[in-house]
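Support request, please re-run this one:
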Amino acid sequence: MVSQRIAVGVVFVMAMFMAIMDTTIVNVAVPTLARDFHVRATSVDVVVVAFLVSLAVSIPASGWLSDRVGAKRVLLVAVGVFTAASALCGVAQTLPELVAFRVVQGVGGGMLTPVGMAMLYRTFPQEERIRTSRILVIPTAFAPALGPIVGGVLVTELSWRWVFYVNLPIGMAALCFGAAFLNEQREPCSGRLDTAGLALSGAGFGALMFAVTEGPARGWLSTPIIGAGIAGVALIAALILVELSVPQPMIDLRLFADRLFRTGVLIIFLGTMTFLGVLYVVPLLYQDGFGTSALVSGLSTFPEAIGVMLGAQVATRLYARVGPRRIIAGGLSGIAVVTLSMGTVGAGSAALWEMRGLLLLLGCAMGHVFAPCQTAAFATISGQATARASTLYNAMRQLGSAVGVAFLSTVMDSAGTARELGHPVRANLTAYHLAFATASVVALIAGAIALTIRDEDAVATMRRGEDRGLPSRPLRRAAR
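Re-run finished. Output below.
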């Protein structure tokens, strides 16, 4: 019989890897989709936006559903929906069909990570969570980097349909393994369905995600973006008022009263905003600024994944001795230095190798943020509140990624990514440098917030020497 630690870890890694990779792999196929469906490339952006909006709408309901119906059941249904929708996307014959199937795919994807994370944290005791992060960082690090590479190969050698078919073996393996070995998890006091919270959160997050993702392309002052932005902010404001007035809300905003959780959520929002925003800018710099192919661009971005893996290994081993405050603050400071250094890279013959080295360092620095922040944020969250806390944490992480891309895109557009220098038109590297400098400032702000973490709040996750039956150094200090 497979232990629950192995079962939950395997299913969570496979499901998260599949969902995260899908957000980057489809971007590579956009030009091919435009040609096959005989539309402009800008019209195909709806394939990406529909998935992100659907993802944002479905995340809030995941916590309540897992408590009421059962986490195993919801997770497997989410994996099944995502996998089936991937197959349908692959056989779509028209653009509207593809968009509809992407919406369904987003519904499944939105529930995968929050429910899987809640199951993981209910399975592992707090003192073991930081060690599990060494393995669970794999999908976070490798999936975004592998997406463009795998997508480029599949589109070039096979067809765009395979960027969706590639999910099928992963999804089927996760579904079969989970059905066979996962135990059910359910909280008995999930309460009635908060229909007002569900409606307001879905509409509010959906409108806000649409505004954020489409703002750079359509223009922030365009009527659809202004309308969606105002509607999103108004709906979320109403959501806050409603959720604070009901005893069992869909989105438990009272969890933000927990200082450590609130700080962790804010750090992961700003950290993800910086990291994924930079990973959006770098391929554009490679292809438009340095003139590389899409495949070379993907391969040259991959060092960040190796860096995240190395950084996470170091951070998880230092966590119990050093504590989350200095590790996270140090990682964010490193991100600020590296991104600022990216702004000094020119267009010389060594530029590509300089960027590869800096991306390795960027990943290493981010590895000191991902795992420690996630572990510390849930240190004071009860088992009963874990599903709802996971919903909030992942909703803010997803929003942070969208805001990061939109924010840095706007910065580049304001500077102009191309300039006329006779003939031909050359890339304006200043626009990319300005985006990197902006990302550096955001990382510094996140680092300053990390310095407010109190290590003693996370003491439950900082035990060392448990295999020898020895108390950790932080616990000995607390005992005295």
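The radius of gyration is 22 Å. Residues 254-480 form a domain with the Growth Hormone; Chain: A; fold (CATH 1.20.1250.20).
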